[in-house]
Amino acid sequence: MEAKTEPYLTSHPDANGFFGPYGGSFIPPPLQAQMDEIKTHYLELRQDPQFIAELDEIRRNYQGRPTPLQYAKRLSESIGGGGETGVEIYLKREDLNHTGAHKLNHCMAEVLLAKHLNKRKVIAETGAGQHGVALATAAAYFGLECEIHMGAVDMAKEHPNVTRMKILGAKVVPVTEGLQTLKEAVDSAFGAYMADPVTAMYCIGSVVGPHPFPMMVRNFQQVVGEEAKEQFLERTGTLPDHVVACCGGGSNAMGIFSVFIDSPTVKLHAVEPLGRGPTLGDHAASLASGSEGIMHGFNSIMLQTPPTITSSAPTPAPVHSIASGLDYPSVGPEQAYLRSIGRTETGCGATDEETVQAFFALSRTEGIIPALESAHAIAWAMKVAKDAVERGERTRVLVNVSGRGDKDVEYVVEQYPQLVTVV
Ligand SMILES: *Cc1c(COP(=O)(O)O)cnc(C)c1O
């Protein structure tokens, strides 16, 4: 009898949350007990028809799903594709999901889970504020308290998101320790959670953190891939040749990749922020330049500062990206795993400069102002499509437009005034 290969998604991660060597759970025992509770209930609820129906109803009638799949005709033509060439770029429009990004997909599901666990409150950290806003939205919808920990430096920088969280009824806790940014916010939020683990649930904002979060968040984001695959097949009669998504923690990428992993003809591209250049501290390309290490409760590939004479323990390196949603010194364990087995492509990245070019390209050919995070994916997709045109190959590229760019317009106008002016 022929050996049956198990579909990838049902066999990954393993029972302990490992994707090959990556993932797992490296946290203190009291926190582990909480993660085990979340996992047990999640594994039950994901089979529960009532939970599934509730989530489905929310996605349709609150979030506005399914989001459209759009053939980007003018963008394709702008790189020499379209028409006879058969080189086509398609956009999965997560910018049209409620709140303007994909993050709400897992936040609604996480807070629904919290409600089923009889929690009264959700706690999280946020860097630029995008996760905080999505979680505050979900908490308002379900009527749970929401407490967001945010570095004081980030609060000043990302003031509009602080205002949004407050309007939505969330309590924003300023963190004034250390550098007053994301790392300190994580510590502060963990501390608050440990003080109140029975009534509160910790909600992670990407496919990172200890098991079961990388698995759960991927599964909650899978709706993007399921919709996109069905829409793509309906439209073209085939699967895409390439699927492209930007990669910070890796949640929007895992969402759209997940349903194509078992289809070997589909090339998967997780596009990393190459920032200002290859020097450590100038980018956040963890997959391309990182090494194995444990941070925030999981084992993965991370950007680390080399050990010194006084400190042998590697620590997360400073990172930079024009897109604040991508400047994380590590990456979800499943992204690390897929890269290590060669299932995702290597060398996928976009510099700040290329990203801003793509931001304007999509705005002016399609009338879509993308988030700077998503503009990384657009930049890479244009490159993949252009290469195909040059080789005379018919190619279809599917890109996840993870979010809209309203939050970024002021920054772009300040930093790139010469690109804004039409002459
Ligand atoms: C947060 C964010 C990202 C990066 O997160 P992933 O987990 O890598 O998807 C990408 N795009 C947008 C619009 C975001 O807000």
Automatic annotation (TrEMBL):
CDD domains in the record: Trp-synth_B
Keywords: Amino-acid biosynthesis, Aromatic amino acid biosynthesis, Lyase, Pyridoxal phosphate, Tryptophan biosynthesis
Origin organism lineage: Eukaryota, Fungi, Dikarya, Ascomycota, Pezizomycotina
MF-aspect GO terms: tryptophan synthase activity
The EC number(s) this enzyme carries: 4.2.1.20
Signal sequence, start to end: none
Protein name: Tryptophan synthase
Organism expressing this protein natively: Morchella conica CCBAS932
Reactions catalysed, as given in the entry: (1S,2R)-1-C-(indol-3-yl)glycerol 3-phosphate + L-serine = D-glyceraldehyde 3-phosphate + L-tryptophan + H2O
Keyword Transmembrane in annotation: no
Pathway where this protein functions: Amino-acid biosynthesis; L-tryptophan biosynthesis; L-tryptophan from chorismate: step 5/5
Spans through the membrane: none
Domain Tryptophan synthase beta chain-like PALP: start-end pairs: 64-403
